[in-house]
Amino acid sequence: MNPEIIKSVLALVDEIPAGRVATYGQIARLIGRPKNARLVGKILSQSEHYGDKHPCHRVVNAAGRLAPGWEDQAHLLWAEGVDLKANGFVDLKHYQWEA
To answer: pTM higher than 0.85, yes or no?
Structure first.
């Protein structure tokens, strides 16, 4: 994986304020790679290998769905004031970060 892309993704994720979320596609567009939402997800799933702790819990899919298999994500978001809808998704109209 290209180290510059990794650095760009993680730097942008670090900018997402507490209580807000971004989508994988949004991150991809903001780094100039609009067709690489899955790459963003892959980078974030391996973020522990890239040093500092990054607020990856603030990134969800385009529908507001949390990362599968990551039980702590909901708790981390809740602790920042992000409430989930009845289906367990984030209400993007209310919580999406406007970069």
So the answer is: yes
